[in-house]
Amino acid sequence: MLAQRPPTVWIDDSHAIVRRGMAACLQQADFVVRGESATLAPVPVVADLDILVFEYGSTALRRAVRLADGRATRLVATVRDVSEQAVRELVDAGVGAVLPHRTLTPDTLIATVRAVVAGTVALPGDMLARLLLHVTQTSHLGPAGLNARERSVLRLLADGLDTRGIAEDLCFSERTVKNVVHDVLTKLNCRTRAQAVAVATREGVI
């Protein structure tokens, strides 16, 4: 969970009217918009940036990952065409949420960014099947398997709970939940919580 202060956001999109529309929506929802850009050129240098909302493209994705590397910045991608390549690249890069342009509304934008701030992942339904196919081809259970506590945390992740929600449900500290999630990702050879849920579902673990 991010610090209890207004979350900071950077907006990136090739269309100025889209950037300004998203910025206005998020500002009305008490987010602090630190700036905007097109295709992340140049990559913004912003301290304490919580969320980067960017328009998907291979170049923009590489720049977004570079910006987030070593920071707590979380990534939200807007996508015009949900292709197989987009699914693979976004999942492998650890993007926390994907927003297809065809379903993008002020309410979905705000709800999705809030979910990512809370530590959850948000993928559209039509991406979940593709994600399952992708992880089937690229991931497998680690040799050590999962213990009961790890399976319990995974089930709650699959139910959409964030770190705080899991901690409250299982009477754990948030630090313990984060440690368990880290162990799960390591054992399942996954980079994101969404990947871990998909792999565990495929393997019948949850």
Automatic annotation (TrEMBL):
InterPro entries: Sig_transdc_resp-reg_C-effctor (IPR016032), Tscrpt_reg_LuxR_C (IPR000792), WalR-like (IPR039420). Keywords: DNA-binding, Transcription, Transcription regulation. SMART domains: HTH_LUXR. One of its GO terms (biological process) is regulation of DNA-templated transcription. Pfam families: GerE. Residues 139-204 form the HTH luxR-type domain. It comes from the Bacteria. GO terms for molecular function: DNA binding. Gene3D superfamilies: 3.40.50.2300. This is DNA-binding NarL/FixJ family response regulator. It comes from Krasilnikovia cinnamomea. The lineage of its organism: Bacteria, Bacillati, Actinomycetota, Actinomycetes, Micromonosporales.
